[in-house]
Amino acid sequence: MRRARESDLTALLALEREFPGDRLSRRSFRHLLARAKADVWVCEEKGALLGNAIVLYRRGTRTARLYSLVVAASARGRGIGQSLVAHAERHAAAAGCEVMHLEVRSDNPGALALYAGRGYAVVGRAHGYYEDGADALRLKKRLARALGSAASTKHGPRYSTGPNAGERRYAHSR
Ligand SMILES: CC(C)(COP(=O)(O)OP(=O)(O)OC[C@H]1O[C@@H](n2cnc3c(N)ncnc32)[C@H](O)[C@@H]1OP(=O)(O)O)[C@@H](O)C(=O)NCCC(=O)NCCS
Fold it and tell me: What keywords appear on the UniProt entry (predicted)?
């Protein structure tokens, strides 16, 4: 598990093809990697990217948003999705966040089972949220307090600095 870098762009875009729609562009990934208040985590095995998780941070709040999660079809069922979420949660907590929230398609039982298993609760529904008109469920989890959370993240303490460009630009989680 490590942070994504510019040289991962092609592999990240290949993973995007696992989504039926609402895909991130190369430009969006560049922004996420370089400037956005975001963490892009990847799982790498023998030089191949098997999955990624993207977390967005929002100025003035202690809430993080798990914006995207994907595991390559050939690598599913091995616990990688779960590990990516656990990793993302730990780092969000270390950055001072108390809550993680996310949206997920209501017709995605695999992802819903994963999140339920990690303690996420359904807190709402957004009708017609996705490009194809599918509904999203809104999920939320209170994060365990990080011990000695010095917020050693890419951009420093998220919840107090910088404009919230990421949230505006990346409206749709998957
Ligand atoms: C959802 C996704 C990330 C799961 O990744 P994964 O690495 O296969 O998941 P894990 O192996 O960590 O599974 C963890 C738990 O999630 C649940 N789960 C995952 N996939 C499942 C499926 N297809 N059906 C039912 N439960 C599933 C299970 O509870 C599983 O625990 P178990 O193996 O002990 O039963 C992956 O299927 C994926 O990338 N799908 C396409 C993109 C997507 O839907 N992303 C989520 C958007 S919010």
Answer: Acyltransferase, Transferase
- Ligand 1 lining (C-beta closer than 6 Å): 18-19, 69-71, 76-82, 104, 108-111, 113-114, 117, 174
pLDDT level of residue 168 (50, 70, 90 thresholds) = very low
Residue nearest to atom 44 of ligand 1 (CA): 111
Residue 174 lies in a domain: no
Which long-range contacts (C-beta less than 8 Å, at least 24 apart) are formed by 92-95? 92/39, 92/55, 92/57, 92/64, 92/143, 93/143, 93/144, 93/145, 93/146, 93/149, 94/146, 94/149, 94/150, 94/151, 94/152, 94/153, 95/57, 95/64, 95/149, 95/151, 95/153, 95/157, 95/158, 95/159
pLDDT digits (tens, 9 = 90+) for 131-161: 889 999 999 999 987 765 444 455 443 333 2
| Residue 140, in any domain of the structure | yes
Nearest-atom number in ligand 1 for the CA of 70 is 39
What pTM did the predictor assign?
0.88
Q: How far is the CA of 76 from the centre of ligand 1 (A)?
A: 7
CA of 120 to the centre of ligand 1 (A): 14
